[in-house]
Design goal:
Layout lengths: L14 H12 L1 H11 L1 H4 L3 H25 L8 H6 L2 H38 L3 H21 L2 H30 L21 H15 L15 H31 L15 H10 L3 H31 L19 H22 L1 H17 L1
Helix pairs in contact: 1-8, 1-10, 1-12, 2-9, 2-10, 2-12, 4-9, 4-10, 6-7, 6-12, 6-13, 6-14, 7-8, 7-12, 7-13, 8-10, 8-11, 8-12, 11-12, 12-13, 13-14
Length: about 375
């Protein structure tokens, strides 16, 4: 039973919602369709091996974060751990860096959300690209804000349903592709046999390809800021962080393998350039005909769910930092009925539109997405 009053809504969500907070923060369908697919340029047909190595590396990090979350369950999460374990000054620096990263998730996800709709609507039905992506970016940003403003139960449960949809669609499509690949199925894609890209031959190609996969893993830690709203947080947060990394990592390996063997490992280097908006839209056409629309909706759904999960993590981190004076005190204000960090939700909405729209219109949504994603990845890796 959730408790209301001063502070966040304690005990409002269980393991399922906490787990899908991490899952949707990783944006599994979007990651497979966009960032991981780009890794084929370097790893070629050996990309599944690069994904597998990235999974092992990220699991080590997830295990460490899970242990920290077990002993220090706090909405402050990433900044609380170094502040308590090492020194408050370090926690201050990490907190500001993480707060900056989280703030960028709004523009990144909503620019991508608008771009996906704009590009497909333009190529399929001739809709004006710029007007379409701008309108849908604004609509998506307001919908995310509305879900988060309404409270943790509404937004977290919406994330659960959205996450289930994208995973089920891509698993079904991957099974279909593997079946249609027939005799082309091979475990050689998990060796260096197909790592033959000029300039990236052998393990250097695997290492380069894994960078794009590591970007796809960012988000498994996003359940940690929900510690003060989760039931039995010392248990649920630890399980969610580790389990999401493992399960979605295996999902990445499975779907990447499916796309690889269906396309052909020797031709996989050009995989990232296929299709309209994503090579997986083209795979959806090849496998399901008009059913490609379902694959597109799963990718679009993944982007929206990522924005929802990002706002959840962002506003909780800001709330925890504001209540101890590291950020302006209004960010610690909670809605009197729903116990949501309502001021933080509004600030995130404003930042998403004020930052994402002008930059996206001036440079284009694709360049804007790559720019923001590069900054986010650099800060997270550092």
């Amino acid at each position: 039973m959730a408790t209301s009053g001063p502070g966040l809504a304690r005990g409002a969500i269980g393991l399922r919602e906490v787990l899908f907070q991490s899952v949707t923060s990783m944006a599994p369908a979007g990651a497979v369709a966009l960032s991981i697919a780009a890794g084929a340029t370097y790893a070629g047909g050996a990309l599944p091996l690069a994904v597998l190595l990235a999974l092992i590396a990220c699991l080590l990090v997830a295990t460490s974060i899970g242990q920290l979350a077990k002993h220090l369950p706090s909405a402050g999460s990433i900044y609380t751990y170094p502040a308590e374990a090492i020194h408050p000054a370090l926690g201050f620096l990490v907190g500001w860096g993480y707060a900056l990263v989280e703030a960028l998730l709004g523009p990144i996800t909503m620019v991508l959300f608008g771009y996906l709709i704009g590009s497909v609507a333009n190529s399929e039905w001739g809709w004006p690209f710029t007007a379409t992506w701008v309108i849908f970016m604004i609509v998506g940003a307001f919908l995310v804000a509305a879900l988060n403003y309404r409270g943790i139960q509404v937004s977290a449960r919406a994330g659960t349903l959205l996450g289930l949809f994208e995973i089920l669609v891509f698993v079904a499509l991957a099974i279909w592709l593997i079946a249609k690949a027939g005799s082309r199925n091979t475990f050689d894609v998990f060796t260096l046999h197909y790592a033959t890209i000029k300039g990236y031959k052998g393990f250097s190609g695997i290492a380069a390809g894994s960078i794009y996969t590591i970007l796809a893993f960012i988000g498994f830690e996003a359940s940690a800021p929900l510690a003060e709203e989760a039931k039995d947080p010392k248990r649920t947060i630890q399980i969610a962080v580790v389990a999401s990394c493992l399960v979605i990592g295996l999902f990445y390996v499975f779907t990447t393998y499916a796309g690889d063997v269906f396309t052909g490992p020797d031709k996989f280097v050009s995989f990232g350039s296929l299709g309209g908006g994503s090579p997986w839209i083209q795979l959806g056409r090849d496998a399901w005909g008009l059913g490609w629309v379902v694959a597109f909706l799963a990718i679009l759904n993944s982007t929206f769910a990522n924005g929802n999960a990002g706002t959840l993590a962002t506003t909780r981190t800001w709330y925890a930092m504001a209540r101890i004076g590291l950020l302006p005190s209004p960010l610690a204000r909670l809605h009197p009925q729903w116990n949501s960090p309502s001021t933080g939700v509004i600030v995130q909405l404003v930042l998403t539109l004020v930052v994402g729209l002008p930059v996206g219109i001036h440079f284009g949504p694709t360049t804007t997405f790559v720019f923001f994603a590069t900054i986010l990845t650099s800060i997270m890796i550092a």
